[in-house]
Amino acid sequence: MDSIPVLTIEDVANIDNVLQDYLQRAEADLIVVIDKGGNLIAQVGDLEVMDVTVIAALAAGSFAATKELARRIGEVEFNALYHQGNGSHIFMNSVDEDTIMITVFGSQTTVGLVRFYSASTASNLASLLAKMRTSSAPGFQFDLNDLSSNEGGFTERH
Amino acid sequence: MSIINYASKEIQFKIVYYGPALCGKTTNLAYIHSRIDPGHRGDLVSLATAADRTLFFDFLPLNAVVIKGFKTKFQLYTVPGQVIYNATRQLVLRSVDGIVFVADSQWEKMEENAESFRNMEENLAKQNIALDDIPYVIQYNKRDLPNIAPVHYLQFLLNNRKKRVPDFEVISTTGQNVFAALNAVSQLLLHKFSKDSNAQRSAAPASL
Fold first, then answer.
1. Fold for domain B3-197?
2. Which residues of chain A lie closer than 8 angstroms to B199, CB-CB?
3. What is the ipTM of this complex?
């Protein structure tokens, strides 16, 4: 059985430090780290403006779709993707085999700057994540008795 | 695969609606979206063609129960049902925690139902997941149509494994049993999560 991935408070603080530093240097608006299944791992920046969960799901899809494109030209996958808008842009790069970093930025910075700082950030993140995967994370134990009988369900409005 | 975040106190789960083309997967999500308290859900995102066929996936994030102070977040996805989009189905199934298989009850769709079920099993196997290890339920959809197969026939076709899974007679356009199926799969999923987390705990004692 694969272990259930657990992010401890310390893990999140370490990741946040790396991301905050990158956010400031690259002058980006928002940075989101996700796994390739679209699950959110970390996020820093302007979180009010966008629904980060949706961004994570769509970015994972976009990354996977272009993987097939990459294969057609003899690549395994594209390490980085850039979506250019009129005022806001998205840059995505691969952190490791399972992880993607998404950077949302505006006209206050440039794609060159974002790309430059994203490379070192990704490699710092990759080593943090590798460490997390090998360390013995605290288990999360929960019993179904923790849920009262009427919980665990979604309520339909009539 | 669920992710537990101790800093934001959140647990994320992924539920995928799987089934043949035009069986009502997107209609399920649209109904859930329309009938759940807006405070407990995000936007429904549909990546569809002009003819309203799912091209990539539909996505709906939901907030559910709180377990020991941890908010559980369910992410609902649909796969594109059309046969040619198998690569996309594999992508959407990535790190799945629970499945709702939506079958079309009409007689003429039996072959497509069986094929889609087989395809789901194959795509799970590519991720080294055995169907018996994943919490799933089956919906027999479109029970309001005239040319439908009886439930026992559908059971024979799709729910004939050693372990029978919960099944529901559904009319996704009116919402009949849509929430029942969703709640059943989330219960199964939480049950498995609880079992796994306890097994993990006894294997490696926690430091917290």
1. Rossmann fold (3.40.50)
2. 1
3. 0.71
